[in-house]
Amino acid sequence: MADTDTEFGLRDLLGLRDRAAWLFLVVLEVTIVLYMVRNFENAPFPAVVAAIGLLTSAGALVLVIPVDPLPVPATVFVAASGPIATVLTTLEIETGWAEPVWTAFASSYVLAVLVLRGRVGAAWLGVAGIALVVAMVGLVAGLRVGVIAGSVVPVATVAGVSVCAAIMRPTQRSLRLLREEATLRAAAEATMAAENGERARQLARLDKVARPILERIADGVELTASEREQCRLLEAELRDGLRAPQLVTDELSSAARGARSRGVEVVLLDDGGFAGVPRWVRQRVIDAATRELDAANTGSVTVRVLPMGRRILATVLANAPDADRRTEIDAAGEVSVTT
């Protein structure tokens, strides 16, 4: 059974991340080895070495993989490691053996961690497999009931962790909801900060370019022809900032102002295609538009950023009495020109 609250696992709740997780891994591996070395007295050396390698690998796997709940292939390996290791260390057990099956103790810690990774059902299947192996060995070797019972006692470790996991689940859900609320709040604050920053930038720009001429108008001074032309250009530049904010840069605004002063009709449109586009691709669009505006002396120049999802990112259409030229820039930054 997988933990339903996968977005905030028990590892997060217990702090088993980063350095703490590595420290926990070292402690787990040392514990496994300390239990397993006792098997060298009663089991073949190669079998014990194989069992130690199996359990230590399972202990590392159950902690290192970052996905919660643990992926199915890793879960199967970890759950099966305990019963297989138990079989390896009890192959040549002697009749009347009075010591516990130490592999069951070592395996219980690995299966307990499996519970923390959201695989409670798989952990208990591993426990059942170990208990079955111990019971069969007990029947074949004629072990005393006390030895068999003592070897199955480690299931209490898995049981305790399972109970703790069940008790902590409401807290886990509460913390997950709190984290979601904090994320939404942070996103809202970031959006508000971005809006305030953009508003401040626009106000600063408006104050810089429009204040002098607005003050002259407020003073009731009759404007000269040059000043009226300046107002016309300023009005068009402010309109660009509203219709195509992502295209408004110092170089493009200067080129557009120069083209308008030469009698060229300039239209800038932004339909949002710059979202998620690398900065260098956006700069390539601005460079292409700036070149067309600097070269235009008559006619019109229309620069448009297309909506998101289009193959073509932006177009620059230059209409002149003698020829028309269309420049297209795709999302990969490739520029093509047709006349």
Shape: elongated
What is the percent of helical residues? 55-70%
**Terminus-to-terminus distance:** 65 Å
Global mean pLDDT: 81
Rg is 36 Å
What is the chain-wise order of helices and strands?
HHHHHHHHHHEHEEEE
Number of helices: 11
Low-confidence stretches: 1-8
Strand order of the largest sheet: 1-2-3-4-5
Main structural class: alpha+beta
The profile of the biggest β sheet is: 5 strands, mixed
Into which percentage range does the β-strand content fall?
5-15%
Beta strands, count: 5
Kindly give the count of domains.
Answer: 2
Keywords: Membrane, Transmembrane, Transmembrane helix
Protein name: Signal transduction histidine kinase
Organism: Nocardia aurea
Transmembrane segments: 20-37, 43-65, 123-141, 147-168
Walk me through what this model shows.
There is one protein chain. This protein is of the alpha+beta class. It has two domains: 10-182, no CATH class; 244-338. It is built from eleven helices and five strands, in the order H-H-H-H-H-H-H-H-H-H-E-H-E-E-E-E. Strands 1-2-3-4-5 form a five-stranded mixed sheet, covered by helices on one side. Helix 9 crosses helix 10 (250-261). It starts with 9 loop residues before the first helix and ends with a strand.
Key features of this structure:
single chain, 339 residues, alpha+beta, 2 domains, 5-stranded mixed beta sheet, 11 helices, 5 strands, 65% helix, disordered N terminus
Write the topology of this structure:
Layout: H1 10-14, H2 18-36, H3 45-64, H4 72-89, H5 102-116, H6 120-141, H7 145-152, H8 155-218, H9 225-243, H10 250-261, E1 265-270, H11 279-295, E2 300-305, E3 312-319, E4 324-330, E5 335-338
